[in-house]
Amino acid sequence: MTQEHHRDTGRAARHRIDADADEDVDLFENALADPSARALMSLAGLPLSDVRGLLDDRDRLDTSLGASIVLATQGWASTHHIHVDEYAAVSKMLEEGASVDEIDRYLVERWNEPGRLESDMKMIRTLGAGDDDLAAIASQRLRLVRMALNHHRNEAYEASVLIALAQADGIVHDFGGRKGLYEGHKPNPKAEKRLIDERTIAGLDTGIATVQRWFSRPYKANLSAPDGDSGSRNAALHGRDLAYDTVTNSTKAFVLLVAAIEWAQPRARDEADRRNRERLARHAGDQGVDEFGRRNDRRGFSTARGALRELAICQNGHRIRNGQYASTTDEIDVPPKVQDDWPDVTLVVADDQSTYWAYTQSESGYWFGIAGLDGNLEWRFYEGTEPPDCGPLDDGDEWDYSETPNWSGDVY
Q: Which of 267, 292, 317 is the last residue of a domain?
């Protein structure tokens, strides 16, 4: 792609939301009519309800939108993890006639800042929140992605590229209607429709729906040296691109993976909710356990465990500030809406306020408890068909240092 084409594309993109500065209403309506603009307002920190803020900051919106369109055509996925200042820098580079390689080098340097990719990859855990089966899948994906990151840091890009691209495909397959990410290099609105929504930046038409075309480009002959055609997933998988193992292609693959995770997050929440509703209805009243010792009837488990964890966290904070645990929940300085989660929690505190234990009953009738001892951040856990008759310091053998089977499942 030529420098002139870059400049033309950038100018066209920045005029996608174009109105006279004096016609404020027209500008606002044009912005709201554009799906990319609506989400990029959020990226730029512009609340939709704040008309004046939008109009005052339209330059930031235009800059982000224009840069994201250009980057999508070059294999860089849009995601809320791209900083607004990075969009601004790319926009300036386009105006100054920067080449594709120069823009790539800038983004590679930014994305490979210490810890950035490692932090973003941890989001994979969120794809398993609330469902044991999804959590198991997310755990295995994270294991492979950590291996890919290790390859990437050790410049073994021949491995990191393929693992990252495969995991992005798998994530979309899990939450995209049993079909993977890559739809082909030509625009196909009907096929790509399932990849587009407005819940995330990655779900915009400048997100994974467009970027997957860059990775799906066809190959005609063996490529033995890096150039502008390198990076096609198909060519790399079929042994036709013999020079795909570059830091640029590896970084682009990880950014695509970041975008795929972001795109999948709301869908994963929806899927976990659906599975839980079905499972709870199916096992209501079932007193049996599964192969891991977990109760089949788990109604209200997350609510009960969540209330106890929240109370324990607040007790830790109270002890740090006051040198002792709170003797009642009323003493804990938390918002009223947090206290509302504790109405059925029984709190027992030692006379010297050095230890406490608390317990509550779930909707299914099963009991959970948590305890703090002498400021130790390692809590003690209880579960059973009856409430605990004593605390962990009173010969309470039923209290465990590690989470018991029915205590697991929450993401903190």
A: 267
